[in-house]
Amino acid sequence: MDLILCHTTADFDALGAAVGVARLLPGAKIVLTGGSHPAVRDFLALHRDEYPLIERRAVHPEQIRSLVVVDTQKRDRLGKAAEWLNLPQLEAIRVYDHHVDVATDIPATQIQIAPVGAATTLVVEELQQHNISVNSIEATVMALGIHVDTGSLTFAQATARDAIALSWLMNQGANLRVIRDYIDPGLSPELQELLTTALADLQTEVISGYNIAWVLLETTGYVMGLSSLASQLMEITESDALILAAQHIDDERLTIIGRSRIPGTNLNEVFQEFGGGGHSQAASISLRSVDVKQTLTAILNKLKKQTPQPPIARDLMSSPVRTIRPETTIGEAQRILLRYGHSGLCVADSDGQLVGIVSRRDLDIALHHGFSHAPVKGYMKTNLKTILPTTTLPEIESLMVTYDIGRLPVLDNSELVGIVTRTDVLREIHQEETSREQTARDSILPNYRQGAYQLLRDRLAPQLWELLIKAATHASQRGWHLYLVGGAVRDLLLTYFRHDKYGSDKSTFNHNSSLLTDIDLVVDGPVANNGIGAGVQLAQELQQIYPNVRLEVHGAFQTAALLWHKDPVFDSLWVDIATARTEFYPYPAANPEVEASSIRQDLYRRDFTINALAIRLTSPRAGELLDFFGGFLDLQAKQIRVLHANSFIEDPTRIYRAVRFAVRLDFTIEPETESYIRYCIASGIYNRVQGDTPALSTRLKGELKYILEAPYWKRALKLLSDLGALKCIHPTLEPDRELWRQLRLLERCLQQKLDWQQNLHHWLLRLEAIVAHISPEYRAQVATNLQLPDDSIKRLASLSEAQTKIEELLLSYQQPSQVVQLLRRYDTPTLILIAIRTNRRVRRLIWQYFNSWRLIEPPLNGNDLKALGYKPGPLYRIILDELLAATLDGKINHSTNSEELRKWAIAFVKNRYPQQKIS
């Protein structure tokens, strides 16, 4: 076990550095050795589950392998955890600190100390050196560490290295709103007096769950730093928006400053109407000789009108909720947590009534004390805080922070209908922040979360748009949410980037039904008592509206498909409608087990961020782009990024999908994703399960078919080769120069427009050529594992023997007829495979056979022989073969006159077979 130790009363720098070290040491755990600052405590009340934190009492000292100490060099600042520094089995002790004038008393094996403003800066620099990225929540706490210890780069100890580290963290997605929430700038004495007055006179109103505050101050003249006062006042009062007005008595001037962190509001628009301006979250105006109260009221009213309805629990919650009984053992509950990746479980009685919640921390402590067989009812929390489906996001966030609650059950008439976790809240907060930052940073798709609806309507043919509206209407009537998901959303956004970004005429793309021929819809709704999912129910209702459509239902996965074939309205359209579901892989590369779940979990089960986008089609918030994993930014960055580290282990065929998307879209594979790919291949997981998991083989064959029949197959194969991924086909497969030479020869052959070529599957022949590059003893088994057709398996099994025989005989033959007689025993694919693998002389004979000799026919046929009086039978074949041989070898004189040629042939036959003629 690797542990990261923060000093007692941990501050943000200690926590930020520890989180960064956890990325440097995968699997390491963070221990807060003794309490934390109040701000850190409040921060962890909401974010605790996002970091690998464990309790000191849950540590088994004998299992500790190494220690990392951050933001201190003194033993006495580690509390009781200092005892671990003397453990005899320790392999390493590492220290990160920025206090250069302190003498260390820690027996460190490696020390990283430098005169920078924050210890976190040192860790960030090492992350950059190793090209290790961090997620938004990790970047946020590290940025907080630097901000707090450097006074946002204003303290004397702040350095350029701190600024560079902060810049990198911002690029990694550090959430500026959260950082602002936990930074406390100081005020001048004059501003402190005004702060006291403002707190006494402040007025507030709750609009749609958001606290909007305003205050009017009187000053004798202009006061510097009113913007800082507004920010401080907003933080102290925990307001979501603030309008601060200062009336200067001596010159009748009015200064108004606005601050807002309410999603969807734009203070710049509000203040511009009065001659001021700024940006969406901060704006100001200075006026003279105006009605102060009237102006302040007008600005407030405009802000209130902008305030949107905040997300409510129904929009955030995961449903259905996975529950356990009070009698479930601690060990079984822990297994369920690991299986589904939860951080806690609801406990319900036999009537389905909620009676408690047990968290991962509760289970860890019970297991630590050896109570794996004890029932969870002895460890669950029964004094529960619950919420309603209509509880707003600000109210939910407040409950979690106030009571340090990681999950809130959602009850509707005492029935457990969902659960909202810290992760759900954080995703929503960070997504809103990303939306605002993206809008400010890039105008490609302004307000992209809401603009997706207009984009969808513009890009779809009217009949497709009408279909989606009808589907959304029926879903809404049942209280379900409906989403357009996956590739359709990706391709719509890509169309916008690739055309509108460069000034193309939008009308060129409007109402173009070719943009979407396959539509994937997901219904976030319950499974009925009869086991029929919401997706299937919706598909059945749509079939009643469109009687010409064919309905296919796949009950095991709760999916349905609506298929039109050469329809006058929809042409050949395929619409998949699925119930939102999650997947669990019981073992690596297995066929996943599927269960009904929420839209978030449905998107999380997908392969890459760019395929985990969805557009909400139902109200409220219709047209919202759901982007929980940064897919929108990855589309702009033109990169393929996997959703989680184990994705390729769970399904190695995703390696081929990553390459296919990268080449087809002209994207790059994000560096960390590439490292996951290489790790998966190096682990040999595919070789261990190959042949034992038919579903995996089916998926791999499908990916190979997609790649090898595409025009970009050469580039894709080259990228697979560079990644070492062709070893997934067989560990001995080496894409050397000889294989590339054979594939080039194969393409030359396939590019020839010959009639005999029409029945060949080019992708399959390319795959056979690749498999044939493996040693002969493995070819048939590899072809069997890939579930290739029977004739392909037989061909690859006998290819080596056939090649040896053909090479030996062809080199000894002198006449074309001998070549034809030999080669016509083999099918075309076999001869092509041998030709690209053999020497030049043999290959030329095979090519001549294909292009010339194969096309030559004898001058007579069976009807001619019958007319000459020969009795039908085996003799016909002998005579015709001899005629063909004579023709090929030039024994029959060729004439431009076909009649002359027939005479020569008849004479040849009569001379060769005079006794066989029937008189």
Protein model, in words:
The chain has 919 residues and is of the alpha/beta class. The chain contains 37 helices and 28 strands. The chain has a seven-stranded mixed β-sheet with strand order 20-21-22-19-18-25-26. Strands 3-2-1-4-5-6 form a six-stranded parallel β-sheet, covered by helices on one side. Strand 16 (407-412) and strand 17 (415-421) form a beta hairpin. The radius of gyration is 36 Å and the shape is elongated.
Low-confidence stretches: 436-450, 500-515, 585-590
The helical percent reads 40-55%
Put simply, the count of helices is 37
Major beta sheet, specifics? 7 strands, mixed
Briefly note the structural class of the backbone.
alpha/beta
Write the layout of secondary structure elements.
Elements: E1 2-6, H1 12-24, E2 29-32, H2 38-47, E3 53-54, E4 66-70, E5 92-97, E6 110-113, H3 119-129, H4 136-150, H5 160-171, H6 176-182, H7 189-201, E7 203-207, E8 210-219, H8 226-236, E9 241-248, E10 253-260, H9 267-272, E11 277-278, E12 282-288, H10 292-306, H11 313-316, E13 323-324, H12 330-340, E14 344-348, E15 354-359, H13 360-368, H14 393-403, E16 407-412, E17 415-421, H15 422-441, H16 448-459, H17 462-477, E18 481-485, H18 487-499, E19 518-524, H19 534-545, E20 550-554, E21 559-563, E22 574-579, E23 581-584, E24 593-596, H20 599-604, E25 614-616, E26 625-626, H21 631-637, E27 639-640, H22 647-650, H23 653-665, E28 668-669, H24 671-683, H25 685-689, H26 694-708, H27 713-723, H28 737-750, H29 762-771, H30 776-785, H31 790-810, H32 816-823, H33 828-837, H34 840-851, H35 862-867, H36 874-888, H37 898-912
Parallel strand pairs: 1-2, 1-4, 2-3, 4-5, 5-6, 8-9, 13-14, 19-22, 27-28
Antiparallel strand pairs: 7-8, 9-10, 10-12, 11-12, 14-15, 16-17, 18-19, 18-25, 20-21, 21-22, 23-24, 25-26
Helix pairs in contact: 1-3, 1-4, 2-14, 3-4, 3-5, 4-5, 4-6, 7-8, 12-13, 16-18, 17-19, 23-26, 23-27, 26-29, 28-29, 28-33, 30-31, 31-33, 33-34
